[in-house]
Amino acid sequence: MTLALETQDLTIRFGGHVAVSAVSCGFEPGTLTAIVGPNGAGKTTYFNLISGQLKASAGKVLLHGRDISGLSAPQRSLKGIGRAFQLTNLFPNLSVLENIRLAVQSRSGLGHNLWSIWSSHKGIIARAEEVLEAVALTAKRDLAAASLPHGDQRKLEVGILMALEPDIFMFDEPTAGMSVDEVPVILDLIRGLKARSDKTILLVEHKMDVVRELSDRIIVLHNGALVADGDPATVIASPIVQEAYLGVEVAK
Prior knowledge:
By secondary structure, the protein is of the alpha/beta class. The chain is built from ten helices and ten strands. The chain has helices at residues 43-51, 73-79, 84-87, 96-107, 122-134, 150-164, 183-194, 208-214, 232-237, 239-244; strands spanning 5-14, 17-27, 32-36, 58-63, 66-67, 81-83, 168-172, 200-204, 217-222, 225-230. The strands form two sheets. The chain has a six-stranded mixed beta sheet, sandwiched between helices. α4 (96-107) packs across α5, α4 (96-107) runs parallel beside α6 (150-164) and α5 packs across α6. The longest helix has 15 residues, at 150-164. The protein is globular.
């Protein structure tokens, strides 16, 4: 099986500091990989290198076997890499529905002409309505995005990402700042995406109960290096994770 996404010796240096150090990792379609590690481990920087927000000092990013290292973040998104907080900058003064509709319209290749005749794009509107229902925002469809509480803005961001239908979904702490009642909506959406064998999901998450439940695999970054990679039970039980991530001192 061709890997959906792969990084080869991916590295970035900031002056004398190596933030991500020669990380090589492949991700198969239909899998959810949780990326964990202590604060400052390089998780978000690794995401930035994959999505194109940062340019690597060395190494490559491959998408479906093709080197995309030279592409910009917008070019990578067009190729099928979707990152929730990177791609889904909300249009604050537009309604919730209009934000979703623009994403659906973009995915359909019709551009971002907000003022095109809605009745001529009934399929786009119907798809936007489906996404709104999926993220539990139908009741707030006419509100300006800027007026939503933080939790609802995160749900809208996930909805926009769903509407863009990328091959690779990258979630960087998708439930951060959400209330206990709001978290299940996002987790159910991620479960639904995971059930699709053609999608690949990368998840940075600090909540270990979420990691245990959702992930097929865990990789651990520590000081910018890949230090563990395997099934959740094995990785969580490993001494290096107990020490580096969970803060448990393991007897030498």
